[in-house]
Design goal:
Blueprint: H1 2-19, H2 26-43, H3 47-52, E1 54-62, E2 65-67, H4 69-78, E3 86-98, E4 102-115, E5 118-133, E6 136-149
Parallel strand pairs: 1-6
Antiparallel strand pairs: 1-2, 3-4, 4-5, 5-6
Length: 150
């Protein structure tokens, strides 16, 4: 009986090691925080902070189109003037990698929006390429695939 319990404990410990997520590096955490902060700026309609988290030549691949920062600001902030607007984002990072000057991340983004009294839930699968500029990570390219809108 004791031997069986010991084997069960060993097996459970081994299974836990196999399924445990590796600890993230400092760079990986910074990359993810840059992405989160960029979306916070978009949600808060803060164009200064939005530009701060992007390279000058950033491109967004949205809905089969190629956008620059001005397009994102126009479509996501300027044209979005509902008084009750609110956007809450949650991220599930799938993969994040970095080297000295380049990083990339893939994640699921869930956004809950309130616009003119309507609640809209949107799910995306996104991949982002970031560049290091003056010791800070900045979004260079973002490719977004709409998964669902309800």
């Amino acid at each position: 009986m004791v031997k069986g319990i010991s084997l069960l404990i060993i097996a459970m410990s081994f299974f836990q090691l196999l399924t445990a997520q590796p600890e993230q590096t400092r760079d990986q955490q910074e990359v993810q925080q840059t992405i989160v902060k960029m979306f916070e700026a978009l949600s808060n309609r803060d164009t200064v902070a939005l530009k701060m988290h992007c390279t000058n030549d950033v491109t967004f691949y949205e809905y089969g189109q190629v956008w620059n920062i001005d397009t994102l600001i126009r479509r996501g902030i300027t044209l979005n003037q509902a008084a009750d607007f609110k956007r809450t984002n949650s991220f599930s990072f799938i993969y994040t990698e970095s080297n000295k000057s380049t990083a990339w991340a893939t994640y699921r983004l869930n956004s809950v929006l309130v616009v003119d009294g309507k609640h809209i839930v949107v799910d995306w699968l996104e991949t982002v390429l970031l560049m290091r500029e003056r010791r800070l990570w900045k979004v260079k390219h973002l490719h977004s695939t709409l998964v669902s809108r309800r």
